[in-house]
């Protein structure tokens, strides 16, 4: 399917989920996750009206950033970020979705020439394979970051477990929203924390119902040219 038709279908489903939840569709931005596809396919997404692109590897990000710079997408780094990769990507991303430890914050603070918009990644599913910090660690972590003038905590990010059990998924997203509201109540100068990055191809409608402001959609929007499963 061409990206344009996929996007129309996804946008319809977002609109319906917003209606069910009494939200405005304008509150939800779609990040096209291009990690499985070529720069040409990523450009198709931009031509279809997508503004936000997401990559989870430094190599993929830098390659597409260079080739697509005239199209001016907003770049999101959505994957686990190794501390030693920060230097390479920091000037090429607008958002980092995977801030999950103090050593990474230290490196961002050191390498960034200006304030960087970050999501704190939270493990809401208690699966050991998932990245992100435990819920209990989030508030103390955010408080520590008040000394980091190059970091702005714009929101929280999570990945739900891969399951058909809708109640389990919904519970993860709801927990993230409640935690987001707690962080916001801190009223900390560099933690407006108004955003929720949650929802992927298989669960974005639930995420939107639970308050997502950024959904990260790869395979059902741009497809998967690697031929393999989702990583
Ligand atoms: C790959 C990836 C996505 C998109 O996954 P799809 O299921 O293909 O939509 C979203 N978020 C993160 C962190 C990813 O790594």
Q: Structurally, how many domains make up the residues?
A: 1
At CATH level 2, the architecture is Alpha-Beta Barrel
Average pLDDT taken over every residue: 94
H-E order: HEHEHEHEHEEHEHEHEH
Each distinct ligand? pyridoxal-5'-phosphate
Radius of gyration of CA atoms, rounded to a whole number:
17 Å
Query: How large is the count of helical segments?
Result: 9
Counting DSSP E segments of at least 2 residues, the number of strands comes to 9
- Unreliable spans: none
Distance between the termini: 21 Å
User: What is the CATH T-level topology?
Assistant: TIM Barrel
What does this structure look like?
This protein is of the alpha/beta class. The protein has one domain (3-221): Alanine racemase (TIM Barrel), CATH 3.20.20.10. The chain contains 9 helices and 9 strands. The chain has helices at residues 3-21, 39-47, 58-67, 86-89, 102-111, 135-144, 166-186, 204-209, 219-222; strands at residues 29-33, 52-55, 74-77, 95-99, 116-123, 133-134, 151-157, 195-197, 214-217. Strands 1, 2, 3, 4, 5, 6, 7, 8 and 9 form a 9-stranded parallel sheet that branches. β7 (151-157), α7 (166-186) and β8 form a beta-alpha-beta unit. α6 (135-144) packs parallel to α7 (166-186). The radius of gyration is 17 Å and the shape is globular. The site of pyridoxal-5'-phosphate (PLP) has 15 residues, from β9 and α9.
């Amino acid at each position: 399917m061409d990206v344009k038709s996929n996007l129309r279908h996804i946008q319809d489903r977002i609109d319906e989920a917003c209606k069910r939840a009494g939200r405005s569709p304008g509150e939800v931005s779609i990040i096209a996750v291009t990690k499985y596809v070529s720069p040409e396919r990523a450009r198709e997404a931009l031509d279809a009206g997508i503004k936000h692109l997401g990559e989870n590897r430094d190599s993929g990000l830098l390659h597409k950033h260079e080739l697509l710079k005239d199209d001016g997408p907003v770049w999101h780094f959505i994957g686990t970020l190794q501390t030693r990769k920060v230097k390479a990507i920091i000037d090429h991303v607008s958002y980092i979705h995977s801030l999950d430890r103090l050593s990474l914050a230290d490196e961002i603070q050191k390498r960034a020439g200006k304030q960087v918009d970050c999501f704190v990644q939270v493990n809401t599913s208690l699966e050991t394979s998932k990245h992100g910090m435990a819920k209990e660690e989030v508030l103390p972590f955010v408080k520590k970051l008040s000394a980091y003038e190059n970091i702005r905590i714009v929101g929280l990010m999570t990945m739900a477990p891969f399951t058909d059990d809708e109640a389990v998924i919904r519970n993860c997203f709801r927990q993230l929203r409640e935690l987001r509201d707690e962080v916001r109540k801190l009223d900390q100068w560099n933690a407006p924390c108004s955003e929720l990055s949650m929802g992927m191809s298989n669960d974005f409608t639930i995420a939107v119902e639970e308050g997502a402001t950024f959904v990260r959609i790869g395979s059902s929007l741009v497809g998967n040219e690697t031929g393999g499963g989702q990583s």
